[in-house]
Amino acid sequence: MSDEELLNKYHHYIKKRRIVISLLLFFLIIIAAVIIHCFPRISQDDSVIIEKEIDSTPPVITLKTTNISIYQNEAIDYLSYIESVQDDKEGDLKDKVAFKEIDTSKIGTFEIIYSVSDSSNNMSQSKLTVEINEKNTEPLPQEENNNSSNSHSSSTSSNNNNSNKPQQPSNNSTTKPTTKVIKYFLFEDGYTMTNVAEACADELKKLGVAGMCSPIQDSTGIYLGMKLETN
């Protein structure tokens, strides 16, 4: 084979190689364009959506107290016991809190379950324990508990002697009585379960003599007030 033939063959090889390389580059450009078209760069809005989708932190429900005590058939202001409901991304979610009301006509201990979910369905709960008591079994002040054995007899005395009920104790009373004193501190005169025992004890102290304060009940067991009786 002559030199000229070898040279022509070499040029032919180089030409074919360039064509193959050009075709490969063309196909690579086509493939790259398809990839870019099918998988566009994530926009700012898309990044916000992705951030929300990976939110795994639930909201936090904070209650003002976890235990309350009420009387039978007493109404409950359910939302008043919620201090706050906060989510790390969505802020205040108090208006999204859900709960199931309880039947306050029943005596016993019950639970109110507060629950809330954020936009990513992260849910949290908080529990409020409710003790429901009978209305006529309110705990007596200490003085009443110490003298509970006299409750029934005091009830009869109260019903039979309403016409002899004395006036309210005077703050200026300083003279010690020389005879037995009986005074009544009744709820119908404005006293309550929280202050009737204290009022009776204060009056006994002012009298300066020995005596006792005992609770008064009617025939059905309902408390009417306190009775002061000196020795």
- Main beta sheet strand tally, sense and closure: 3 strands, antiparallel
Principal-axes shape call = rod-shaped
- Protein structure class: alpha+beta
Total count of helical runs of at least 4 residues: 5
The secondary-structure element order is HHEEEEEEHHEHEE
Low-pLDDT runs of 5+ residues are 138-174
Task: Please count the beta strands (DSSP E, at least 2 residues each).
Answer: 9
User: How far apart are the first and last residues' alpha carbons, in Å?
Assistant: 149 Å
Gyration radius from CA atoms, angstroms = 43 Å
Provide key terms for this protein:
alpha+beta, Immunoglobulin-like, 3 domains, three-stranded mixed sheet, 9 strands, rod-shaped
In words, what does this structure look like?
The protein has 231 residues and is α+β, with helices and mostly antiparallel strands. It folds into three domains: 3-40; 56-135, Immunoglobulins (Immunoglobulin-like, Sandwich), CATH 2.60.40.10; 138-230, no CATH class. The protein contains five helices and nine strands. The strands form three sheets. Strands 1-3-4 form a three-stranded antiparallel beta sheet, with no helix packed on it. The protein has a three-stranded mixed beta sheet with strand order 2-6-5, with no helix packed on it. A hairpin with a 3-residue loop joins strand 3 and strand 4 (91-92). The chain starts with a helix and ends with a strand.
